[in-house]
Amino acid sequence: MLTYQIDPKRLDLAETQDGTDIEFYIKLHDEVHVDQFRLVQQVFDSNADYTDALFYAYANHEYKVIVRQEHYNDFVIELFKARLLRSLEWTD
Amino acid sequence: MEQQAYWAIGIFLFIYALIISEKIHRTIVAMLGGILMVGFGIVSQEKALHHIDFNTLGLLVGMMIIVSITAETGLFKYIAIWAAKKVKGEPVRILIVLGLITAFGSAFLDNVTTVLLMVPVTFSITRQLKVNPFPFLFTEIIASNVGGTATLIGDPPNIMIGSAVKELTFMAFITNLAPIVIIIMLAYIPLFVLMFRKKIQTTPELKASLLKLDNSELITDHKLLRKCLVILGLTILGFFLHQTLHLESATVALAGAFLLLLMTGEHTMEKALSRVEWTTIFFFIGLFVLVSGLVETGVIAELAAKAIEWTGGDPLATSMLILWLSAIASAFLDNIPFVATMIPMIQEMGQMGMQNLEPLWWSLALGACLGGNGTLIGASANLIVAGLSGKEGYPIRFVDYLKLGFPLMLLSIALSSVYIYLRYLM
After folding, report:
1. Residues of chain A found within 8 Å of residue B209, distances taken between Cβ atoms
2. Interface pTM (ipTM) of the complex?
């Protein structure tokens, strides 16, 4: 299982299970990280899979992302690659 | 008929049965069907290649490239979300507005292009509202085929008819077909509401969540958007002018696609080409060769000639026969080879002394375009949506579609019959 630690200076993050999907609620703290987050969105929007991760933007840099179970790891890894997470670790 | 014609009919029916059964992917089946036609010597490879409509394939590939790049800018998502918010996030109203956007888009882009734009945002909205995407996708399929009927560039049969009959200009298509298209859409809207309103219920919280979406975040690349809008505009203008410029629609679409790639670079090209729906392209290729077996052995010509013989040259009977025959045939066969067969037959009727061919041309256009709504394999837009939906985990079954689509198609043809009679034959 992939676990992570967020960087509270950069974002607030909460995740909930919704059926077979995972919903992430993300609030970014500044513009720089919004740009990084957009890169994450671009990865999922530009592939051929339309429902792997669906991004919804709200005011004040708040986002909801609905991620299909099988793409959970991909999404978390992309957040890490965008330096929005502090650490990423495989745990049993 | 010769022995080969019976072989062609046998292969054709066997392959169509396999496609309908959905046991094997339709692209594999159609390609194997085409290979059987060539392998059994029913059509030579050279003639089979001649029957592949590269104008249609080029148009599809070109528009898929333009759409895939433009979609990355967030433009279409912006329009759809904006419309969904305007109707207060109410699923039934969203179903209608997305249907209307699809119909309008299909009239000015081709209907395949339009559904390619609408499907991703439909998934986004339906997932947000936690409603089944099928009613929305179904409505968009129907709306795309109806909307595509309205203009010369909206659907391949119209492109073919417009190319063959120079008097039928872009404006002639709009003035003659747009009124009945509007009537059909107005008749469909309450039916969509009746069919689906109970299946697409959501909660006030989810609606509120949709209303809170920030539209300004949806346009992700303003610079790319400007380039895409320029190319989209030029491409649509090219479609308007393609007869004047003596260019096939595929040339216009491919020119637009590769001009856009020139402006956006190599990296974009690889991504855009990888997003072309190659399974659909190969399905078309297989179908073209499969149907070529029937064309080359004279089966389609014989069927159509006998049908026209039955009417005795009466304009009303001939128009109604062409309308209904085209609709039923287009529901089950690819309408492009069918229209290709019907065009010279109607021209022949003119040479045989029929004075007013206009109602026959509009009957053919209406029958071939609207008939595509009858089954899941009736039109390219249907196949594209079904393909995308299946890939995303929401398969659209042939029979499920047939139960809803076929009666709607019959209704549209009934309305068209009245329209043709009142406007041209009374």
Report:
1. 56, 64
2. 0.85
